[in-house]
Fold this protein.
Amino acid sequence: MEFKTGAELLEICNIKNCKIYDAAIFQESKLYGISKEEIYIQMKAQLSVMRHSVEEGLSEERKMVGKIIGGEGKKIRDREKNIKPVCGHTMAKAMSYAFATMETNAGMGKIVAAPTAGSCGVLPAILLSIEDSHQVEEQVLLQGLITAGAVGLIIAKNATLSGAEGGCQAEVGSAAAMGAAAIVEMMGGTPAQALHGAAIALKNLMGLICDPIAGLVEAPCSKRNAIGTANALISAEMALSGIESVIPFDEVVATMYQVGRMLPCALRETAEGGIAITPTGLKIKEEIFQ
Ligand code: SF4
């Protein structure tokens, strides 16, 4: 049985009495003829790149292409280490990891584009902060990564993951949905709860436009990755508490796509609208390209 929608995925999980990552492994193995062990090896390699992208972002003084961002991850991490953060240690650490990965990306370092380079901060932030706060084993993180992949696959098949096509809701919104589902399963929640978490996270960023200053993936992108990360954590907490999305996941995905197509081109990665064309945004662009 293959799944293309959330409803089909849940049906498989119910019939097989399995988790989302089990259903995803089964589908990938069948479609591409690779073993479960190979899938875990590939996921381990991706997780390793994520770890390095966070470490690099927190430790190295990188030269960003646009020099719009830089040092945010370290600032949050230093504050988290020295005082009690207003949003708690897990959230603060996660934010610092999201910023760090985005800094590595902006400095042309190696990242995992999951689901895109512009939203590459969310999943490492979630996985590594949960590892820190809940001391989960690496195998659980790999399962979380596979769960996230299954949710991303459904969004890609039924909508879009591209900021140019659907706005930032499609990039960071999708990353947050993938992350929320991953957290729910890593914390022992059910597949249904995982999709409620994903639906809540995607709805929370519905309508978010794509308006990068100077057309570079730096601002507002890095802060939106931090927000996407926080959104995933909050949405997962709701789902794990038994709070359900009023609108089912598949309907939220379809609506996100419709909303994305309704956005004018100026608000879809062209840098011709939104904060990209504020007086300050245009001044920064002029300084970079003069
Ligand atoms: S604003 Fe645009 S380029 Fe930046 S993260 Fe969002 S979708 Fe990607």
Q: What stands out?
A: The chain has a mean pLDDT of 97. The chain has one domain: 6-289.
